[in-house]
Amino acid sequence: MQSANHKFEDLASSLNGNLILPSDAAYNQARQVWNGRIDKHPAVIVRCADAQDVIYTVRWALSKGLKLSVRGGGNDFAGRSLCDDGVVVDCSQMTAVSIDPQMCTARAQGGATIAHLIDAAHKYGLVTATGVMSGVGLGGLTLGGGYGPLLGKLGLVADNLLSAQVVTASGELLTASETEHPELYWGLRGGGGNFGVVVSLEYRLYPISEVLSGSLLYTLDQAGTFLQLFSEFLKTAPDELTIPGGIIQMPDGTPMLLLAPTYCGPLDDGEKVLGSLRKLAKPQVDQIQPVAYNALIRVFDALSPTGLRRSVQTQSLDTLRIETIEILIEQARQFSSPFSALLFHNFHGAASRVPVSSTAFGLRQDHLMVEIIGTWEKQSEDEDQMHAQWVYKTSHALAPYSLPGGYVNLLDETEQARIPLAFGPNYQRLVELKRTYDADDVFNSTIGHVSPGFVNHEVESMGV
Ligand SMILES: Cc1cc2nc3c(=O)[nH]c(=O)nc-3n(C[C@H](O)[C@H](O)[C@H](O)COP(=O)(O)OP(=O)(O)OC[C@H]3O[C@@H](n4cnc5c(N)ncnc54)[C@H](O)[C@@H]3O)c2cc1C
What we know:
Bound molecules: flavin-adenine dinucleotide
Structural class: alpha+beta
Number of helices: 17
Distance between the termini: 46 Å
CATH class of the largest domain: Alpha Beta
Strand content: 15-25%
Number of strands: 18
CATH architecture of the largest domain: 3-Layer(aba) Sandwich
């Protein structure tokens, strides 16, 4: 092992951060990610402390001909932040956030999470668009788009990115913004982690200190009729109201429909709008109240602990038809594990009004992005197959009613054929951008590996 470690001495001696090798006690923990099914063995995990470390690590890895992957918050379910036998550029220690309250902007290092950003902004009564849960990395979230509870008013997380500092495949540090490397800036907003290591992200902030939010729960028996009315309700919902939700399971295993509305305008107006929602059907549980945004991002954290085994698919629905409602309810009755869930993200308002060519994000029309999440504890290989099969069956059943593509952040390596569809009219422009900034496909790519006619073997072999 000594000679193996020797290979990394020059790298280690140049870092402000540190590196972790397979022989180190910290190695097994350092290679864990959110999805407990991921079991990759990098040659080295470089815990970068700053942009300089990132530059040095990228150059070093390329000079040795080693593969690279980039880790932010470690939440990607497909484990793209790790690579077998390669170098992990681990940004997870780079979490500093600075706020400019006068300019209403925030700058976060590339490994910061939603919690780091929102907690820092909260001190000034400011927020920005984020995802639903506090521990998700801003890097992956922003680069892939970023659905969240303020989406109707503020757009995607990526829509609020003002600039980014990026270490490219040539080891150069660039700033991408409207005025500097504008094409790269375009691609970073929804194009995924394809163009470099983002060492800092600058966001626009807004003066919102409190929102009206919480949970409404309905029985599955109510859900059939209610979801049809809800689908109509969403068509006229104001920008201030965004309603993520899904079908989750209670501790006793009963599946229930959850709506988690967030209203970010004047609270009195929110009460009125939510009053109309409540009139559609009486929820079994109604826990909506004014809440600080930094508390809201933590409400659902416990539902999604790190380390359980996962399989995930997405389908985007333009509306909830009777057929799709029936599929969702039927598949919820067949949850293969007590931890599995069907979640949906409400895309509308400001996010839908951004012209599709303005950023790389490929789907700019109102929709519900349905996340089909199989979650279980390891029992056996057969067990893995059974839960994954529930996910694929559900996805397959929804597919005929879905918009093309899927959410780039939640596509896996078996879904290459969906990638051009997910980027839609922006795909060719992204391929060009990839040629300009990363022709050798150094960075964990959702674009570079597409081959026409790719067949989804995993789904086929499961007979769904
Ligand atoms: C519990 C949970 C809740 C979620 N909630 C939401 C949600 O509300 N809305 C939503 O849209 N999505 C949500 N997601 C999905 C999430 O957007 C993706 O999993 C995203 O990739 C997570 O980013 P990360 O930095 O934590 O991931 P990682 O696994 O660290 O990174 C994933 C990939 O992102 C890229 N990347 C990450 N950081 C950088 C960087 N600094 N520079 C360059 N590339 C980078 C790399 O390609 C990397 O391989 C959720 C996921 C989980 C597990």
